[in-house]
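Morning F.,

Quick status update on the modeling queue. The single chain you submitted on Monday has been processed. Sequence for confirmation:
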Amino acid sequence: MNARRASRVLLLAALSLAPALQAAVLPEDRADVLYHRYDGGGVTIDGPSVLVRKSFADKVSVSANYYVDMVSSASIDVVTTASPYTEKRTQKSLSLDYLRNKTTYSLGYIDSTESDYIAKTAFFSVSQDMFGDLTTISFGFRRGQNDVFRNIKDASGARIRDPAFQAESDTRSYSFSLTQVLTRDLVGTLAYELMSDEGYLNSPYRSIRYADATAPMGFLLDPERYPATRTSNAASARLKYFLPWRAALDGRYRFYSDTWGIRAHTGDLGYTQPLGGSWTFDARYRYYTQDAADFYRDLFPRRNTLNFQARDKELSTFTAHTIGIGASWEFRVQRLPWLQKGSVSARFDHMIVQYDDFRDITRGTSAGAEPLYELEANVLQLFVSAWF
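Structure tokens below.
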């Protein structure tokens, strides 16, 4: 479960673009059809997504999204402590924006379901334009309630939920952002988010390993044990500069810390270039680095070394590089008067993740001396959009 969820985090990080700068206007009426694919580290995630947005009376905009992940996993976590699997996650969401003068109120609900994890999330935000639309302040709140299960195999080999295991977790986040037009060509954004997690926060499948000279491989396995609470803070700053030849350059820095001892730094740099009247190209580089959680070890010296113990590679010390390119072609169809315009877009990202203290135990026979693990992944995104 956690291995594929971590891969989805990497997928979103690879595909994420800096948020658009918006004045107090409703989003345009449009429909999007997306195909996404993540392939790396023994994990393949792919599937479609459909989003439709429609406004009414220039005051209300409603959007609905249907998103599917098909997961096939034989990642390093799975092959060392479990068995390969396939999984399907279905996500449905509905959101509403209400515009009143210079204030936009937004609320929504997300329902995500897979065989061993059910997540229900509600969110609300308020955005206010001030000082001649040169300044925008936004506040947001998000609440998620999750049910965690564990899959096992029955007598026929089919995957079913373990009737002896069920857990819950609760997530809350509070966000604030300030966007300021600094000059005619320069826009800046400051953002902060406080996140609080409580409940069952680890994987029912993953194990830690501890040294044991009598074991054939030099170590034995025990289930992971995580704290029942986690508080996280994230602050970011972004600048976007519009160049004279219709291009744009943007950069972002983000700092993250939490009560588990993780400290992370993210840097993004992007360039966007329109070409002709129909094409837009962009390139982006992302750098990410983090320190390990206080209770993470690749190999514990003995059993029950700490009260809490983890060997999730996403809690280790690692560095990630992502480089991506994208292209979009905009078109119009004269014979379809209800279609204002359409676009076809493609994006490709390549990721390299280098782990400093997580070892590949499928290689080597001496516990603690195996080579360090490295992950490479490709992310592809194809979508068609229509404005009406």
